[in-house]
């Protein structure tokens, strides 16, 4: 977060204090706000719909990857129409496997939860824990990095 930690402490003061060691530092872009995520998802949904209609291939399922110089946006659409989107570094590999794992976690811990309603935010601790675990496993395997 620039010169401050995520909780607002000055990074130099934090590093001077020996009680904070060992330190784990992760570099990456600032996280998107909820509004930015919603805006990105709604823009991508529109592009996805236009792409599937304009595709010269009959029965096209839409955009699976959108590549820029700075990031790649990967999309996995389920048979029921739910889209999972991951932003990743352009050099990252293994995102397709990660998307399938995220769908597996979603189907196991969100869809099977009797208190979950479709198209509502997922508020399930088991889902959060297993999603975090899947991301950590993918990151340790070297297929997926912290900037995604």
TrEMBL record:
The keyword Transport applies. It is found in: Endoplasmic reticulum; Golgi apparatus, cis-Golgi network; Golgi apparatus membrane; Postsynaptic cell membrane. GO terms for biological process: endoplasmic reticulum to Golgi vesicle-mediated transport. Keywords: Cell membrane, Endoplasmic reticulum, ER-Golgi transport, Golgi apparatus, Membrane, Postsynaptic cell membrane, Synapse, Transport. Pfam families: Sybindin. It comes from the Eukaryota. GO terms for cellular component: endoplasmic reticulum; Golgi membrane; postsynaptic membrane; TRAPP complex; vesicle. CDD domains: TRAPPC4_synbindin. Gene3D superfamilies: 3.30.450.70. InterPro entries: Longin-like_dom_sf (IPR011012), TRAPPC (IPR007233). Core component of the TRAPP complexes which has a function of guanine nucleotide exchange factor activity for Rab1 GTPase. Plays a role in vesicular transport from endoplasmic reticulum to Golgi and autophagy. May play a role in dendrite postsynaptic membrane trafficking. Belongs to the TRAPP small subunits family. TRAPPC4 subfamily. Part of the multisubunit transport protein particle (TRAPP) complex. This is Trafficking protein particle complex subunit. It comes from Mugilogobius chulae (yellowstripe goby). The lineage of its organism: Eukaryota, Metazoa, Chordata, Craniata, Vertebrata.
